[in-house]
Amino acid sequence: MNESFLTAFERLKGIEFSNDSDVLHKNSDESGLTFYGIYQSANKKLKMWDLIEEKLKALSIKECSKWTITQDEIMDEVKTTYYNNYWKWLEDIKSQKVKEEMFFFFMNTGKKSKTILMVQYFLGVIKADGILGKETISHLNKMSDEDIKVFDKRFDKLEKAYYKRLVRLNPKKKIYINGWFNRADII
Questions:
Q1: Statement: residue 163 has pLDDT above 90
Q2: Which of 93, 117, 141, 169 has minimal CB crowding within 10 Å?
Q3: Stretch 16-27: mean pLDDT
């Protein structure tokens, strides 16, 4: 893991988790626990779940949440999971801002090709194929500071349009839209 990722990870902490007692929780519409935005049901093989489940025998979920974030072994696994699953593929992009936009959207949606298509749509000079290839990376790395500011605003609009579409397709997800919009604006 490098400084670029660690910077984004610190932003993740500040955006997603305002209360140490809620970092570990159970969402009503999912099976299993969620810790640091990582779903147990989708990441069953992570060692942290055994440690958390054992601690939950003695602590409430809120107390366990506070304990869990102090555990280096667990937090290292969280960082490694985010790095390998959501960040590593962005390493060839120079702009921290561009990487963070793509990281947070992909992390939230799990849609890597959609993330890339949105970037390619913004660039408009290459075939939109949903693949982060050399040509896409080259165009991203040629962007000026002003281009990156424009990218930031347009990507936020594309994110919000995506989330609105999700809600139209599944009105139950409306409970998440304010959080999604806030995240898009912050990043």
A1: yes
A2: 169
A3: 81
**What are the tokens at 132?**
């982060």
DSSP 172: G
- For 136, the token pair is 């896409």
- Backbone φ and ψ of 38, nearest 5°: -100, 120
Q: For 125-135, give one letter per residue: b (16+ CB within 10 A) or e.
A: eeeeebebeee
For CA atoms 3, 153, 131, 41, give the dihedral sign. Answer: positive
Query: Average pLDDT of the chain?
Result: 91
CB 78 within 8 A of CB 36: yes
Decide if pLDDT at 18 tops 80.
no
Section 12-31 average pLDDT = 79
Q: Is the entire prediction scored with pTM above 0.85?
A: yes
Mean pLDDT of 47-55: 95
The pLDDT value recorded for residue 86 is 93
> What length is written for the chain?
187
Helices (H) and strands (E) in the chain, counts: 9, 3
* CB environment 75-111: b (16+ within 10 A), e (fewer): eebbbebbbebbbebbeebebbbbbbbbbbbbbbeee
